[in-house]
Task: structure prediction
Amino acid sequence: MTSSIAFPVPCLRPIVLAISGVLLTACMSVGPNYSRPPSVNIGDGWAQPTVSAQSPQNLSKWWQSLGDPVLSQLVTQAMADNLDIRQAMARIQEARAQRDRASSGAMPTVGVSAGTTRHEQSENGPLPIRNIPGVERQQTIYEAGFDAAWELDLFGRTRRAVESAEASIQATQADADGIRMSIAAEVARSYFSMRGAQRELTVLEASVATLQKSYALTQRRYAVGDVAMADVDAARVQLSAATAGLPALQARMRASALSIAVLLGANPETGLALFNTQTPLHEARLSPIPVGERADILRRRPDVIAAERRLAARTAEIGIAMAELFPKLSISAGAGFQSLEFDSLLNSASRSFLVKPVVSWRLFDGGRVRAEIHASEAREQQAALGYEKAVLASLADAERALSDYRFGLDTLALRATARDAARSRHSRAKVRFAAGDSALTELLVQERELYDAESAYVRAYTTASTDLVALFKALGGGWEGQELISKQSVEVDEDTTLVPVVTGVR
Result:
């Protein structure tokens, strides 16, 4: 025997038609529509007169342009294993889950239930059970069915929530790109610091070797009466002073290696095993680089992108608050079966259903909604000012990095000239001393000057290298270059207006 179950749909038709009409007419979202960020006056051009306004080089993997395979390998490993980056990726997943939760508000909720109830009614209660034929005092009721609830998004509260959540995801992605940028720069900075200490150690070891030879030569000449004991003491003092500097440089190398280990997400032993004094030294390519226009940098800086996206999120939140001023329409429905006998539970006579449209409108709340709207508008203004600050701070950062790198290159060139001159003077002093034409003190002075010049050049080279790293970071380099938003979303011109252009119901 086949039975069919049908619910009396015709009675729902007026409700469905009414809901359809509302959905067709109520498609607006209250609150401002975000269009672009505020305009910020960024000036006419770079303050540095030697800055090239050519198109900037590819900055996404700037470390590869330095020609050091060890550095490239370290940065690549850090991009994969750094714990800060992995935390940032987890925050992106959290933001996406928040977006999904916000978008679920536009969907109905549906639940199913089934159960049985056993109850006994009082014979002395308001219902005279003993006088009603066929009604038993003890009853078992079987039930099965589903229920649904749906709040229609008439004035865009859910749509604005999704809009805000989407912008927050993009801001979180920009934050993650900023962390990638910082980690790449920090790995390179620590690497160049380690290499700088290694170069200084090489220079000092060469100086110690030279001083040892001078000391041995002085002892031999003292033995034959060519020099006084004071010359031997002077050579020994200078040798001891130079040797005393070795542990400090070795400690600097070790500290830098440990810092890199943390950036790689590795244990200290792994970091220390990566480096030793036998590792070949690579000369980074230090030369002026084209940086492009100021606006190009602003479009690449993750902090500027994040600030702009947070402004978009705060703008959407105004609409969320404003939607509370308007009526809400929700629909509850349920359908199922109810029977005193389990065998007849699914019969058509046991079916039941309920449809309950509800319109609610808050008429008085003591100004709570208005206060929340004003608070949302204040948060939007804070975000607008935060965006302006991010733009100006990024420009100052870039200008400072350009200045440091430019003067770092100038200093490096001067130090190279001084080093070459010191080498020439030292060579001549060695020849004169070997021929007996000069005193030991002159040779020791030249050896000290040579060491100072060599060390100063190495320090200038390390400084210029780290300045170049800071410049790449300031230019927005160090992430994959996947723009989160269109370039038009970051407006930069000479207009100082700081109010976002918005449209919509206010």
About this structure: The chain has a mean pLDDT of 81. DSSP finds eleven helices and six strands in the chain.
